[in-house]
Design a protein that fits this description.
This protein is an alpha+beta fold. It is about 40% helix and about 20% strand. The chain is globular and about 80 Å long. The chain binds adenosine-5'-diphosphate and magnesium ion. The site of adenosine-5'-diphosphate (ADP) has 17 residues, from helix 3.
Amino acid sequence: MAKASTTESRVQVAVRARPLNQREIDLKSPIIVSIHNSQILLNKPNDRHNTPKTFSYDFCFDSMYANSSNYASQEHIFQTLGEEIIQNAFEGYNACVFAYGQTGSGKSFTMMGTHNDRGLIPRLCQTMFDRISKEEISTDFNDDTKQSIDDSDDSSAAFSMKFSSSYRVEVSYFEIYNEKVRDLLNPNNNHQALKVRENKILGPYVDGLSQSAVISYSEIETLLIEGNNYRTVASTNMNNESSRSHAVFTLKYTQTLISDSTKGVKVSKVSLVDLAGSERASKSGAQAEYIRFREGCNINKSLSTLGLVISTLAQQQTTTDKSKKPFVPYRDSVLTWLLKDSLGGNSRTIMIATISSANDNYEETLSTLRYAEQAKKIVNHASINEDEPGSIIRELRNEIDKLRKELADAKETKKSSEKLNAEINENEKLMRTITKDWYERVAETEKISKERHEILEKAGISVCSSGIGLEKDKLYLVNLNPDPSFNELLVYYLKTRTSVGRPDATVKQDIELIGVGISPEHCVFEIRNQNQVYLTSINKSKTYVNGQLIDNERHLHHGDRILCGCSHFFRLNLPSERTLLNNSATPAMNTIDGSYYSFVDAQQEVLLNQLAADPLTKELRSFLKESDIEQDKSRILSKKTSDVYEREIEYLKQQLMRSISTNLPDRKLSHKNRAMEESFSKWRYSNILVNDSEESRAFFAKLKQELIRVNALVSEANTISSEMQRQTIFAVMLQIPVSYLKPNERVDYQI
Ligand code: ADP
Ligand code: MG
């Protein structure tokens, strides 16, 4: 593509600190971040040297105190960063924003936001269309009228007004999970993972990714909602953790400018990326090995390569000798390959690093701030992508001709002619896509959107109400998900009889679920007497209500948690009871953030009920039940003494001597449970007695979360094992290093 002169621009780096979340408030975790204009101070309490670490960035957004007048709102962030991106796009520059930070630090909130508090992506899209329609109207008027409409606009907009112009917006939305690309707008594309290829003229691209032609903001809004819904469904069905995937939303904006004598096309690509949780990149040593093992080698690849690309690009800036410039490994991961232009290439790029302000996350915050420091050093070479119309097509055609000639001249091996043929096919395929008429594209987009609707509706999700204008007086289920941005995103309205089961069931199910532990015909919801809901499990399927496995019919109430299989959690909304509960003076249920039970609470409930069946896990149960750590600690400290601790060690020794060897699975399990309980209780008391600190509180809270999570995995593994009719039984074991049992020594734990 013919390029205008390039301008050098540094990657701009913004940091946003979010408010404390409920867990951090419960832990009484101090705030360790303070922001002064473009400087951030990180102050670790109890630090021996106690010198705050200072960092400075292009922008620092203080969103730590929601009620403060300084609170950096979504609107403020859009005004500061988004307006410029739109301006760049209209001028014909590529742009990219990527959000980096640990899970839970506010990446999705900043990029996508919530329905009531929209983030950067929806605001950008809305403003872009507002501006397009403004300019389109203005081009229809005569010059005088134009001036009055657009008085406030800047010079470049005024410049473009002199032309008769037309605007096209195409969007794509995909996620990268475990180095595989999943199209979020066209589920039919995902029967096989999409491949990333690189074309000489067009650069890297995802082969076969859908490009939706959109003509209004409301169309984009629907795409975003449905894309996110599909992402939620896919991640629950495959049991993928969303924190491990990267979501990439791309806007391609094409302007055709026609003046009296010339015609030109400006194309700008805006990539908006919500990265996987950075904690995955910063793990080192044994933990990294363990994660690699568990996640099938690839899961971190994109994130770790991004780190490598950023540090290499930063290094490049300090190397003056051109021949010694380090090699940038863009092609080592799908993400960096696709974002090649955005990093060190033709793009104006912004990184938003999101951090928690709590002491509890000190290490991750420090690592994010250091990462952001590196990104500041990257210099991009952005240029306006302006061409004569059809020049790309001409270039592609020339390339095809050249390849054909090479093929004809080729006297070489079969292998090289195969390669040439593949290249020709690839270029022809791209040609066909590019030369498609706009109306053809709009029609294709409509077709894909219909198919997407059907797929979502077939799964039982109420598409028309997805998030907007939820009919609150109806009976429905919402999904519970560990990722707040996926939580309660899916709405399933209940009919008089709603069946739940797998898509491959002989009878079509109203709500289709895929995943471990889901039976073809799993369970049935029935509405009786207008507003009474009954749930029946079919053939002893794994159906839980409020953590209890049900084996027959169960009358459900508003707010009840339902688990189908191992990972599909729902909450029931029963409007008639909700009103009653709201009116009653007593707090009826555990309310978190104004709603009943979070995903973790629901998961914990299931675990507690499972443990209730095993008398040996009493200790673990009481630990998991703790709601107030302070209160519990005093209880335990008064009850337990180091005598008990020693007695327990003695007991463990006896157990070791006895050397139990049995192949009976149930005994194996209970033995493990016992060992778990013993190790756990010893370690715990030693820790509490010795280390009654902030650090230990945070540690316990984390351990509790990990235990709940790991137990869910174990339960799933056992379900898979029984589905495969294997004898293997898995159980959780807490390994506590011997050194940990000595007072005053604090070592990391492993699960
Ligand atoms: P991530 O995508 O980084 O894992 P999320 O964006 O899902 O994190 O944020 C975690 C939680 O914190 C969400 O419930 C979100 O609404 C909340 N949150 C994040 N940033 C802010 C903020 N600036 N103001 C208010 N709430 C926030
Ligand atoms: Mg997120």
